[in-house]
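ok so for the tutorial part 2 we go from a plain amino acid sequence to predicted structure tokens. step 1 is just haveing the sequence, like this:
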Amino acid sequence: MKRYCSAILLFVFAGLFSCNGVVRPDVSGIAATVVEQPVPFSMDELQQRTFGYFWELALPGNYQIPDRWPTKRFSSIAATGFGLSAYQVGVERGYITRSDAAERTLATLRVLWELPQGASKSGVSGYKGFFYHFLTNDQALRYKTVELSTIDTGLLMAGVLSAQMYFQEDNTTENEIRRLADLLYRRVEWDWMLDKEGRISMGWHPEKGFLESNWHGYNEAMILIILAMASPTHPIPSNSWELWCETYEWATFQGQTHLNFDPLFGHQYSQMYIDFKGIQDDFMRRQESDYFINSRKATLANQAYCIENPMDFVGYGITQWGLTACDGPASVDTVWQGKPLTFFTYRARGAASQQIIDDGTIAPTAAGGSVPFAPEECLAALEQMWTNYYDDLIGQYGFKDAFNLTYTSSTHPKGWFDIDYLGIDQGPILLQIENHRSGLLWETMKQSPYIRTGLLRAGFSGGWLDAEDNRNSH
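step 2 — the prediction. this is what the tokens look like for a chain of 474 residues:
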């Protein structure tokens, strides 16, 4: 990993340079201090730093990815899924060797397979193949009373399957990666999570059973539905995609007519793993669109809303925008520009036809995770934030989670800047920039028979799906 230096003491001579900082001797001429200088923005620099979050912070002994850092609370199974995919980026970009990535991947999969599963309230990590949303840092067991999470398990399995398809060499390590990945995916009892409406519940608690909320479109759960439909062991019914689409809201917002969902992560997570360019289900065929185009329109609408800036928040503009789920400055009601305003801590922020949740907090992952959809607009935003707020927003793992220039106080005179990185927000930045640059995750997952089966069962056709069918027929 290429690392940048904060202020450190070194025994050097005046005029030397180190780690992007200028070495300046003190009055004694012996000790010297490296003064931090902004590193010019580049996708290479951003990816390499962001990769470090997953490679360097994986928890010792269980290899799960922390939910956040430097605050230490618990690991996130969705972030662990993103980590499994991040290791592949590391290989392709030359940050790590293939053998190192394979060994780490295998160690992670072994832990996931061997972690205890059961209906108990504690002392387990999952049940019926699903995993709890958060796991303890030490033993990777259920954290407090969190739910058995369907979407987080789905995102974990997307990462697991990406590992299965990426590590295809015929050697002991990679053969075992493929075997364990298959076992993990086949173990998930997706059909057990169906509710009386025939939709997948958002989760389950051993204390009180299934959550009343279920997954229906449109949001981040496309990947969940597709994986559940494709299961060779516990598939959900063939009409599941039709049920998913029944609650779609096609509307115009900020001049963009598209399938609306307010936080941008809902337009990003599934498309980190599935290339929806040019393939259509029945709904998108009727609209003469596809989900990739839809995410572009959602990204541009998010930007347009921030440019309009109806609440007159500080800093919003054409290259400073991005509303999605992220950390926030505080939980407090106040008045801003004569209007009532509530600041939030962690919250799904966004703007769409259904609702607008906005307190002036911008998250770099909003633009970072949408780079493939609108590269010019998203990269300009990332460069603007990197360059203008380097000292407060950028650190060893790239972008910290969020910032809010409207929220000021005696301790935040320049506005609020997060101290933490979040794994589920780091993942989209790293993986989607790679998809934009090389299509790595997309091309890897196109080879997965499970992804193809799920898409076909959901009624998708066209584009690369038809091209693959034509190649297979010759």
